[in-house]
Amino acid sequence: MGIEDGVDKVISSESATHRHMVDYTMTQLAGGRHLSDIMGDENLTTAASRADRRKLLEDPRVVGAVHEDIIADMRARLDAALDR
């Protein structure tokens, strides 16, 4: 393994802090909490820098979970409007 491979591995690997943040966020989202509330949690604000929290918002797992919640909410609103 060359130095470039080692650097790529370090850059592309997830830190323990990032994994914790993703796991925590996914658990909270599954529990029905809104992302904006979760992002203000002391659990995240004390464990990670602002840049780390911003990176969390770009994680595909978090983006996917939030996307699913938005779509479900939009479907519910549409169904309610059509039922009137």
Tell me about this structure.
It is a single chain. The protein is an all-alpha fold and 84 residues long. It has one domain. Helix content is 77%, strand content 0%. Helix 2 (16-30) runs parallel beside helix 6.
List the SSEs and their pairings.
Blueprint: H1 3-12, H2 16-30, H3 35-39, H4 42-45, H5 50-56, H6 60-83
Helix pairs in contact: 2-6
Distance between the termini: 65 Å
Number of domains: 1
- Tally of alpha and pi helices: 6
Poorly predicted runs are none
Main structural class: mainly alpha
Share of helix, binned: over 70%
Measured by DSSP, the beta-strand proportion falls in under 5%
> What's the helix-strand series?
HHHHHH
Main beta sheet, described?
none
Rg on CA atoms, Å: 17 Å
Shape: elongated
Mean model confidence by pLDDT = 85
Q: How many beta-strand elements?
A: 0
Provide keyphrases for this structure.
6 helices, mainly alpha, elongated, about 80 residues
Task: Describe what is shown at a glance.
The protein has 84 residues and is mainly alpha-helical. It is built from 6 helices and no strands. It has one domain (14-83).
